[in-house]
């Protein structure tokens, strides 16, 4: 055995070491290349942000959102006039609400009593006075607009009674709020 | 070395993107269930005889009365005495009738009085209003007044 002869163990260790280095370098190169080629999420973020802002603004633009239920399903109509916000007088099968606050409860299938109409009239007057007071302090002026959101099965006497009470309390413009979408 | 590595790190946008996607999905679903609402402006309701008065000097006007089993078209003013009865759900017939009357009487008032029996559902009133407001040929009676009494 000459001295130039290399120790097989050393040789294999030396080769192993250089292989590891090669592998490490390849991995580093691959990692760097991968980092550069990764999906760029910034553009997607921009798109999503724009969509989200658009949808929030669109949602806000609706002057009145109502939740349909068995007791409150406005009839469908061919009318195409856009809604204008105003005091919301809601007449469901079981109750009358003013700006989403319960005013009276109606027994199913029964007419509104004169005493209940008096309560509705008082609520309308109070709401009118509040709007006038707010208007005097720089808020929106009282325009006399009332939006009537009524269930399709509500009898005509209830509807006309509500309009009559509103008229007595100086509400001068009536708007029936209906579902878009043509015939019932 | 550690500080240098931090400089090359980018903000991890994935969690933020997840939130945005969820928010958008939520809003899309909510918007789908929102009901598109429109409005139908009406004139103030009035008590007393529909159309107010029976003077022969007035322009002709019409009152549509909805009863529990029929739709009646009643004339007023110069059209006093005219009365026609249609079936309860004959909305197409009502529109045709109103168009014929409007064509026959060019000075007919633009407003129409609609009245109904106490127990007539609101949706029937709206259907009559839709039929009276316009037809395929165009506008019929755009100004609708709701009255409380029922014409016979």
Detail the topology: elements first, then pairings.
The complex is a heterodimer of chains A (184) and B (152).
Chain A: H1 8-37, H2 41-61, E1 76-77, E2 87-91, E3 95-98, E4 101-105, H3 114-136, E5 145-150, H4 156-168, E6 173-180
Parallel strand pairs in A: 1-6, 2-5, 5-6
Antiparallel strand pairs in A: 2-3, 3-4
Helix pairs in contact in A: 3-4
Chain B: H1 2-8, H2 14-33, E1 37-46, E2 61-66, E3 70-76, E4 83-87, H3 91-104, E5 111-116, H4 122-133, E6 134-135, E7 138-139, E8 143-147
Parallel strand pairs in B: 1-8, 2-5, 5-8
Antiparallel strand pairs in B: 2-3, 3-4, 6-7
Helix pairs in contact in B: 3-4
Radius of gyration of chain A: 36 Å
* Shape call of chain B: elongated
Q: At the fourth CATH level, what is the homologous superfamily of the largest domain in chain B?
A: ATPase, nucleotide binding domain
Q: Could you tell me the mean pLDDT of chain B?
A: 79
* Oligomer type: heterodimer
Assigned CATH class of the largest domain in chain A: Alpha Beta
Instruction: Report the uncertain regions of chain B.
Output: 48-56
Could you say which overall geometry of chain A the principal axes of the C-alpha atoms support?
elongated
Question: From the coordinates shown, what is the CATH architecture of the largest domain in chain B?
Answer: 2-Layer Sandwich
Number of helices of chain A: 4
Strand content of chain A: 15-25%
**Lateral arrangement of strands in the main beta sheet of chain B:** 1-8-5-2-3-4
CATH topology of the largest domain in chain B: Nucleotidyltransferase, domain 5
N-to-C SSE string of chain B, H for helix and E for strand: HHEEEEHEHEEE
């Amino acid at each position: 055995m000459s001295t130039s002869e290399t120790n097989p163990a050393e040789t294999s260790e030396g080769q192993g070491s250089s292989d590891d280095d090669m592998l490490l370098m390849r991995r580093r190169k691959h990692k760097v290349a991968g980092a550069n080629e990764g999906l760029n999420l910034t553009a997607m973020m921009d798109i999503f942000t724009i969509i989200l802002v658009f949808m929030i603004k669109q949602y806000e633009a609706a002057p009145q959102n109502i939740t349909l239920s068995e007791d409150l399903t406005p009839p469908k109509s061919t009318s195409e006039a856009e809604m204008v916000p105003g005091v919301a007088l809601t007449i469901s099968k079981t109750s009358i609400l003013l700006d989403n606050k319960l005013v009276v409860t109606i027994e199913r299938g029964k007419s509104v009593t004169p005493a209940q109409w008096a309560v509705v009239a008082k609520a309308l007057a109070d709401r009118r006075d509040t709007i006038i007071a707010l208007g005097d302090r720089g808020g929106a002026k009282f325009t006399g607009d009332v939006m009537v959101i009524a269930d399709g099965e509500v009898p005509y006497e209830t509807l006309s009674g509500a309009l009559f009470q509103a008229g007595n309390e100086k509400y001068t413009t009536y708007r029936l709020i209906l579902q878009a979408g043509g015939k019932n | 070395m550690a500080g240098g590595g931090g400089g090359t790190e980018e903000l991890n946008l994935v969690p933020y993107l997840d939130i945005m996607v969820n928010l958008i999905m939520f809003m899309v679903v909510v918007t789908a269930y929102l009901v598109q609402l429109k409005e139908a402006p009406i004139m103030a309701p009035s008590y007393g005889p529909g159309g107010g008065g029976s003077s022969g000097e007035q322009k002709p006007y019409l009152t549509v009365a909805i009863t529990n089993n029929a739709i009646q078209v009643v004339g007023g003013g110069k059209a006093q005495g005219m009365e026609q009865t249609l079936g309860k759900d004959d909305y197409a017939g009502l529109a045709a009738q109103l168009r014929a009357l409007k064509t026959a009487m060019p000075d007919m008032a633009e407003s129409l009085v609609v009245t109904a029996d106490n127990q007539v559902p609101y949706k029937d009133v709206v259907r009559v209003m839709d039929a009276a407001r316009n037809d395929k040929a165009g506008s019929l009676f755009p100004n609708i007044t709701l009255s409380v009494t029922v014409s016979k």
